[in-house]
Amino acid sequence: MKQCLIYFLKYYVFWLAIMLLQKPLFMLSQHAQLGDVQALDWLRVIAHAFPLDLSVASYIMVLFGLLLTASFFAPARIVARIGDIYTYVLLLVTVAVFGTDIGVFPSWGFHPDKTLFIYLASPKEVLACAPWYVWVFGIAAMLLVWLLLCLAYRRWMRGLDVMPVQETWPKRCGYTFAMFLITGALFLPIRGSVTTSTMNTGRVYFSDNQLLNQSAINPIFNIIESMSVQPFDTQRYTYMPTEEAEQIVAELLPPTSAPQKVLTCDRPNIIFFILESFSQNAWNAMPCLRQLAGEGIYFSQVAASSFRTDRGVVAALSGFPGQPTSSLMVVPGKTKNLPQLGKSLLAEGYQLKFWYGGDEDFTSMRSYLIDGGFVERVSDHSFPVSQRLSKWGVPDHVLLPLAADEIAHRSTSAPTLDVILTLSSHEPFEVPTTDRFHDLYLNSIAYTDSCLGAFVDTLRRSPQWSNILLVFVADHGYPYPYDVQNHEPRRYAIPVVWAGGAVAEHHEITTLCSQIDIVPTLLSQMDIDRSEYWFAKDILDSTAVPFAFYSFNDGFGMLTSQDTVVIDAKADQCIIGQEGETETRARAFMQRVMETIEKL
Q1: pLDDT tens, position by position, 207-234
Q2: Whole-angstrom Cα distance, residue 473 to residue 476?
Q3: What is the topology classification, in CATH, of domain 259-556?
Q4: pTM of the full predicted structure?
Q5: How far apart are CA 312 and CA 478, in angstroms?
Q6: Any idea where the domains of the chain sit in the sequence?
Q7: Given this model, what pLDDT does residue 125 score?
Q8: Can the peptide bond before residue 401 be classed as cis, meaning omega within 30 degrees of 0?
Q9: Are the beta carbons of 315 and 347 closer than 8 angstroms?
Q10: Low-confidence spans in the chain with pLDDT less than 50
């Protein structure tokens, strides 16, 4: 029994050491964003991370403890081999999770969660996120680390015999019962307490530097926790009675008055661009869009609703806010009940077409588009393999001229809506031209911007120009400059521009607003009912309350003309701003979004 306990404890220490080592490795990988932190901060991260690390190690120990419990009656050699295989597999999974975490955190701004499995369902798109040599180097490095850890395990556990020698059956039964109790005691570090509060990632938060808090989160626990949360967990975001939340949101979205008219016609031919990763912070890399902003309507105070394309497309076309821990687009049973620009205009006699150079089945986008009336669609399979020149599909300089040529030469008398989703400014930012900026992200933005310029030049020469409205809106922002953290408001700043012959004259609209407000504002200009866009306002309505709402991984923020509040839902606390009216409004808004999703 003594040897068995030593084996148990040494195995526990082995896994705790691995969990502990992950923290400084993660912090080293994020040193640029961490900035000037003190040596004490590194120790504080490790100390505050210990409960989560202990919980994850305890999860691992449960099966190992049960294996040891069985060892008093099973052949020692078989028990040892099963233990080795169990350890090697878990080490491989652990290295893969930790390595992926280090790789994706800089662009995601949060640790991998169950969202990762949604993307893994489309391996082509996952592989497109980085150049091939990054994948090769990353996988080779992880395999090397795995082999080193396997060797360390063999050396650390060497020489221990867990099988009691020549013990009587009663003693073996007693030992079995004792090991079963010890294994059962792992429930405490797994759960974290004996009270109603259970272990959660919010427990490790200790600093006003959010990256230090993120450094203390165990990525494996983060995945386990996210898998245990319902896709749309209303209870998690319930802060007050529903009636109170409804009243607060109603005050944010008062009845509409007559908006300022900025278009020359009621039924323009609309070309609605959703621009991949176009951050307001990269405005200097968009000379063509800047020129169009100077000619048309420039909305300069717009916040993206969320941080991924699947959320951004729904926000842009359906005027529905993004969610912190889930994606509405991947649930067709709910998205079919959403309003959508295509549906609204189809009822007005518009002809619809969707243009995208990538895979329309990624994150169930096809079903969303079909529900929105986009029967006619262009995607990567509409092109020969020779034109699918980027990892994500057909680059913008191939897609946009095709769309421009068709739109410029249409002869239909019905008004048209074309939605164009760009893709070349997606990671890994590999574009045909590399001479505009040394920074890969800025260079990709400048490349797509030049494609937009050529697109617009083609349409300017067409007879339809006087009746064309171009709408440009980003799907989401991007963490640029690179010290921007995922929860910060500037991470969500995006440009929105209306241009084309249907725009009466230049205006800069400085009203604080959101990506979800674009479609309702457009419909108001066309005198089309927008009442089903429940959470959005008409930006050009003089009575509109200036505010913007966004969500990030398990958190949300609200910007108003008075102040800004950002709330981390894991810790259930303000990480920017103070408790007060804006904080209450933000909580009410988030609650009503989740309650509405539950009823869709």
Answers
A1: 878 788 889 999 999 888 877 656 677 8
A2: 9
A3: Alkaline Phosphatase, subunit A (3.40.720)
A4: 0.79
A5: 12
A6: 2-228, 259-556
A7: 66
A8: no
A9: no
A10: 162-163, 165, 196
